[in-house]
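SAMPLE LOG
Freezer: B-3
Tube label: C17
Construct: single chain, 389 aa
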Amino acid sequence: MDTHEYQAKEILKKYEMPIPDFGVASTAAEAEQVVQYLGLNEAVVKIQVHAGGRGKAGGVKFAKNKGEIVEIAKKLIGMKMVNNQTGPQGIIAHKVLITKPVDIAKEYYLGAIIDREHAMPILIASPEGGMEIEEVAEKTPEKILKLPIGLDGTVKPYHLLRLANFMGWKGNTAKQGMHAAASLAKAFIETDASLLEINPLVESPDGTIWAIDAKLSIDDNALFRQKEIASFYDRSQVSENEVAAKEYDLAYISLEGNIGCMVNGAGLAMSTMDIIHYYGGKPANFLDVGGGADKEKVAAGFKIILSDPNVRAILVNIFGGIMNCATIAHGVIAAANEIGIKVPLIVRLEGTNVEEGRKILQESGLSIISAEGMADAAEKAVASLKGGK
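STRUCTURE (predicted):
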């Protein structure tokens, strides 16, 4: 689950992260209250959306006086941001963050993730802040430092000293930077985060360290014990399909293709999307029905897929381990009878009760294109877009 910048900052302040004073407003009147409460004569106003690239999209503005702060906030509230991260539908900003500006002498990157290669949480740091860390890793990998984080959220003192030396920090700036890194590591572990980053972490001309932006994503599987963060969930920042999928415990991500996919298991789902690409098609979504789906769940999955007007074919790829192929077959029929499937439907079943599942589909009277393997299924799905079988 993603959070807004202001929510991430509220969490980080509890860990004594150095963050400039800020407030949040959803109306011009609230913006005026923030200005008065913080005593601002100038400010940075930033839209709050679950996407990056806000500055380039015009969602971050500098205001030079009190009146301008309120006026800019009024214009940005309700703004629809559209870029490659939001998709063509865009995301509407319902709130803005209003923060005290900081003079910047140098920008850094500081973040924490789970390193799956080494099966451990790590701290990532770079003296090249203010840009995508992936770009830094690709062009100048020598400017990235990775350090282990203990499962108790601590970073070894000698690792923090190594960090300070790598970043070029001296004296009091080094103390502040090491404190910020230790705070971030502790917050990362204790919030069950999958990503926590400050980009940029900045140094002001007097050597003071500030976290002027923050991004926090939480592992959905840990939300049951992160009650406060779970309450941060902003339904307005996700598509209606993703909201519906969440209600049925379906893993759904909308994509930009035209072949709808229903698969059980994340690995099989990604392989299915890969093989669709291989045969010249483009998947319209990632949809994992999981291992314990029933007829209602499968039918809900079809409704979600078909609500996308770009979908021109549907590929069902099920390997029945825990999942029973007969259950999938009944779900397909139930969905077809309830909402009508008017696009080509390609089904590949394998595993538990596969013969019964195939028989159920064959005797249903539905126009279903049967496939024997993944390659066959992908080829038939792509061919169906051109009128083939």
